[in-house]
Design brief:
- By secondary structure, the chain is mostly helical.
- It is built from nine helices and no strands.
- Helix 5 (about 90-105) crosses helix 7 (about 125-150) and helix 8 packs antiparallel against helix 9 (about 175-195).
- The radius of gyration is 20 Å and the shape is elongated.
- The N and C termini lie far apart (about 50 Å).
Amino acid sequence: MAIDTPQAPPRRPSNAKVRLLQVADELFYSDGINSVGIDRIIAEAGVTKATFYKQYGSKDTLILEYIAGRDQQIRSALVDLTASAPRPQDVLAALVDAVVADTARTNFRGDPFINASAEFARPDHPVRQAVAEHRDWFTGFLEDQLRRSGHPQPGAAADEFYVLRDGAMAGAYSGDVIAATSAFVRGASRILSEAGVESRSADADEAPFD
């Protein structure tokens, strides 16, 4: 008879590791990944250089942790959104509002994944690959919601919705926020209407994912 061996609970990351990632997340997003050096992260996190290398080993590892953390943040927010919204139509309408609300944050600096991709030229770079995986997942999520909503071409509509979102995020940061978000709402509303979805007014107080 097999004997079950008790499994040890997963080790929680150390406070220093969590703090390093929190600081890196803030700095990489606000100032850019390549412009932020390890010494600055170490200083603002209040740890030693030895601690940094013990926890992450290199800046490259920390960068990938940053991308993974941002990816998980959005996935969790969208999972929570689907759990709280009664229908996929409501999920999509809420997502339109969330994108607009996201651009209104005082610390908004555009889409972190687009920003990260722009800093690494090689398509085979691990950061570019991580970003591509995130975008594939997000597009798949949109396609699933549109299919369940009854859109006649959910795949094409998901691609269009995502490109509109990209444009809104980039345009809101680098140009006119109102013009960018208004164009996004018009385009998204057309896509949702094709699935019989009426989008809500884009005046949400807070985005579900920052």
